[in-house]
Amino acid sequence: MDDARDLLAFLDAGVTPSHAVAEMARRLAAAGYQALHERDAWALSPGDRRYVVRDGGSVVAFRVGSSLPSDAGFRLV
User: Fold this and answer.
1) What is the β-pairing status of strands 58-63 and 34-36?
2) How many helices (H) and strands (E) are present in the chain, helices listed first?
3) For residue 33, which of 11, 49, 54, 72 is within the disulfide window of CB 3.0 to 4.6 Å?
4) Which pairs count as long-range contacts for 12-15, CB under 8 Å and 24+ apart, including other chains?
5) What are the C-alpha distances in Å from 1 to residues 6, 30, 71?
């Protein structure tokens, strides 16, 4: 039931695309993800959790794995 309540809270907070992105960014930061800026050079290390917001209307989050994608594969959700 907690998952259903959490979903409803997210839907209540995300009344527009920009509100949904802001809520997602807030939740990602609370989960230990750090924001990156699209135009900056990125220095990434294995285990890093990062996210990028584009124009307030979309968000991409990722975690850097410890193995090469050619060895471990690549997953996109």
Assistant:
1) unpaired
2) 3, 3
3) 49
4) none
5) 9, 21, 38
